[in-house]
């Protein structure tokens, strides 16, 4: 029983890493209608900035806060000077641009800070608490709590604030939004800025665990995209639950389903997606997209 | 998705390689020497220079060790060149130049790099990676290009029948695994062992070597074996499952730095304190054991054949200080290397130097002949009890290792377990 609980908790903790990235992807998608493949790279860049500041002697929590602010402006600048040029055109082009951006940022981090593993100090201690025969590290709990807080804030923002509504309006129909007096350009910048902020938080949370390298988020990004599809791209709560589900099911399947084992567990989330999408094409928690004719 | 971009880059690279190759062909054979008495010299060697080629990961997850495989040999020959060059067995003094290309640990790219280099270099050497070196092994055999002293523990490179133009440098995975298995078997105490290994040749090699080492030892019981994929982001579940066996030894055949750190941390969180065995390339005191807080365990063992540059006292020794300053000056490597590969590739330079001194004709054939005739050469920074020996078929240039135990800062050589 102890092992079972341990596996579930470990899964939630790994899932939280995917969730952090998935939330940022949802945010950009809700604000701009795009899937941003560069999200992982942006999170890594932010983590490097925080690590660099901490290396200069800035206290870790302050370094992360400064990075969050810097990331907001970086995200906004990327939107204003890079993505803006592609937003009017074919959405596929814009997506490909984000893939290019991912490669570019990864290369940039490698060039600036080498590809060596850097040690990023953890915000939370590595101590553990014993619950029902399972050891839960303070870091896992901390990560999970931060993700839940971010998820609630995002959900509240989209559903309950004018900013959230305006962001969604711009994403759904930029032209009508502009006609009704919304500052479309500035809203798009805010959307990208906020998603970079989420990325900065995600990067700082997971860097101690994955150890900081330019490619740190590459695998996590694949899982995050899986969570986004599974949970429904319009629902922050949905993607977080989906990410947790992926983390937990992967662990349990590896240990308890003998023919899957650790070799095939990577396939579990994708089989799950396949099944869910046949039954609910909009994802577990997503809204059906309706187009007015 | 990144694979698509990579593929595109690959196509561009291939196209340029083709263009280069065509340009090369049109210039005709070349390389014949004027008087026609001596054997025609091979490509990549003149009376004043010799060029070596390297393909190794300089970007991506394995770039840390990969960068080191270039830096060490550049430092070695940089210093030699500054002193005038290497005196060859044919009486000529040549400067040794190095052309290194990035393969990002991608086999396809490694093959393309090889194709790009093969006509302009005398020999390929020092590159890191099993799949990447395997990608052009057969091409090197049919082109008769030496692929020697490469950094892979795959035994295929050291088998003369399979690989006439190859020779591995570092001990095979089996050599390492076996050394630890023997140490454990000879302890005379009962031990319960669990194994976590990477699901590929690397992990399998370690495990099979380890099992050879404990063969017939009734005091050693392997209670559980699990694997992980090199692309996994976490091995928490595996460590949890292994911890539940309450084994007192874990054999962790892992090649991924972040996962090695995470595994050490996870075991501590579960309050499971076995003794660890870590392979030579994931046992760096600075990069892995320190962050993983390895002093919490009763013992962390690894095998080695060379000193560690990040061990305390290294930089203070004359030899160490000279190495670090050469690394800075000739290879533009400013930090103290956290990976052993910098020293390994420096040793590759030293071994090649020995071969060059014996070479009486400037040909790849003679080079291979002399390469296979080195015995008991103690390269710089080798530990007592280890040496370079290329005369034994089926073994890499270095096949002897000593077992070491972590002392909180660096490693001490140990004779027995416990």
Describe what you observe in this structure.
The complex is a heterodimer of chains A (293) and B (418). Chain A is mainly α and 293 residues long. Helix content of chain A is 74%, strand content 3%. Chain A has helices spanning 2-32, 39-55, 60-87, 91-113, 138-160, 162-172, 174-179, 184-210, 218-231, 236-256, 261-264, 268-279, and strands at residues 128-131, 134-137. In chain A, helix 1 packs across helix 9, helix 1 packs antiparallel against helix 10 (236-256) and helix 5 (138-160) packs across helix 6. Chain B has a seven-stranded mixed β-sheet, sandwiched between helices. Chain B has a six-stranded mixed β-sheet with strand order 2-3-1-4-5-6, sandwiched between helices. Chain B is globular. Residues 1-5 and 11-37 of chain B have low confidence and may be disordered. The interface between A and B is large, with 43 and 40 residues.
């Amino acid at each position: 029983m102890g092992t079972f609980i341990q596996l579930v908790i470990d899964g939630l903790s790994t899932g939280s890493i995917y969730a952090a990235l998935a939330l940022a992807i949802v945010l950009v998608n809700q604000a701009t209608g795009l899937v941003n493949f560069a999200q992982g790279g942006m999170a890594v860049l932010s983590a490097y900035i925080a690590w660099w500041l901490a290396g200069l002697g800035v206290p870790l929590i302050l370094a992360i806060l400064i990075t969050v602010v810097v990331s907001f402006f970086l995200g906004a600048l990327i939107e204003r000077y890079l993505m803006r040029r592609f937003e009017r055109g074919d959405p596929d082009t814009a997506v490909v641009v984000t893939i290019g951006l991912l490669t570019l940022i990864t290369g940039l981090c490698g060039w600036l800070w080498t590809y060596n593993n850097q040690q990023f100090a953890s915000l939370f201690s590595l101590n553990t608490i014993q619950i029902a025969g399972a050891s839960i590290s303070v870091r896992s709990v901390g990560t999970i709590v931060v993700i839940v807080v971010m998820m609630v804030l995002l959900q509240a923002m989209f559903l309950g604030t004018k900013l959230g509504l305006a962001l969604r309006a711009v994403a759904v129909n930029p032209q009508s939004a502009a006609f009704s007096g919304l500052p479309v350009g500035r809203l798009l910048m805010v959307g990208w800025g906020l998603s970079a902020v989420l990325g900065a938080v995600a990067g700082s949370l997971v860097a101690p665990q994955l150890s900081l390298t330019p490619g740190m988020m590459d695998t996590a990004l694949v899982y995050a995209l899986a969570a986004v599809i599974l949970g429904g791209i319009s629902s922050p709560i949905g993607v977080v639950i989906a990410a947790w589900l992926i983390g937990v099911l992967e662990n349990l399947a590896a240990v308890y389903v003998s023919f899957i084992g650790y070799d095939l567990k990577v396939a579990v989330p994708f089989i799950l997606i396949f099944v869910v999408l046949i039954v609910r094409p909009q994802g577990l928690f997503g809204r059906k997209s309706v187009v007015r004719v | 998705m990144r694979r698509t971009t990579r593929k595109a880059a690959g196509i561009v690279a291939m196209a340029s390689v083709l263009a280069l190759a065509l340009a090369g062909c049109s210039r005709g054979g070349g390389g014949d020497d004027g008087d026609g008495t001596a054997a025609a010299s091979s490509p990549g060697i003149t009376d004043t220079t010799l060029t070596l080629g390297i393909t190794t990961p300089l970007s991506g997850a394995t770039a840390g060790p990969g960068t080191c495989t270039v830096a060490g040999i550049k430092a070695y020959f940089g210093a030699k060149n500054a002193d005038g060059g290497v005196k060859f067995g044919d009486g000529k003094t040549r400067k040794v130049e190095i052309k290194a290309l990035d393969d990002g640990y991608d086999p396809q790219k490694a093959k393309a790099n090889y194709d790009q280099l093969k006509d302009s270099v005398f020999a390929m050497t020092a590159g890191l990676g099993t799949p990447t070196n395997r990608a052009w092994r057969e091409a090197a055999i049919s082109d008769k290009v030496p692929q020697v002293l490469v950094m892979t523990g795959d035994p295929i490179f050291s088998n003369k029948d399979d690989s006439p133009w190859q020779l591995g440098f570092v001990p095979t995975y089996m050599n390492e695994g076996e050394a630890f298995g023997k140490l454990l078997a000879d302890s005379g105490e009962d031990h319960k062992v669990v194994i976590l290994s990477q699901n590929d040749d690397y992990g399998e090699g370690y495990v099979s070597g380890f099992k050879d080492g404990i063969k017939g030892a009734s005091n050693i019981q392997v209670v559980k074996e699990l694997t992980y994929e090199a692309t996994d982001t976490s091995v928490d579940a595996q460590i949890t499952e292994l911890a539940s066996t309450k084994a007192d030894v874990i054999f962790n055949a892992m090649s991924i730095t972040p996962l090695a750190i995470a595994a050490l941390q996870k075991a501590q969180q579960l309050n499971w304190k076995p003794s660890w065995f870590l392979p030579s390339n994931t046992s760096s005191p600075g990069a892995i054991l320190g962050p993983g807080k390895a002093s919490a365990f009763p013992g962390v063992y690894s095998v080695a054949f060379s000193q560690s540059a990040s061990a305390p006292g290294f930089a203070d020794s004359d030899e160490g200080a000279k190495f670090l300053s050469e690394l800075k000056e000739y290879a533009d490597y400013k930090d103290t290397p956290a990976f052993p590969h910098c020293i390994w590739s420096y040793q590759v330079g030293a071994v090649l130097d020995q071969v060059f001194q014996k070479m009486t004709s400037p040909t790849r054939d003679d080079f291979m002949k002399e390469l296979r005739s080195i015995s008991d050469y103690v390269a710089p920074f080798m530990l007592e009890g280890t040496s370079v020996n290329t005369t034994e078929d089926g073994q890499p240039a270095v096949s002897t290792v000593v077992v070491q135990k972590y002392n909180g800062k660096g490693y001490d050589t140990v004779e027995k377990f416990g």
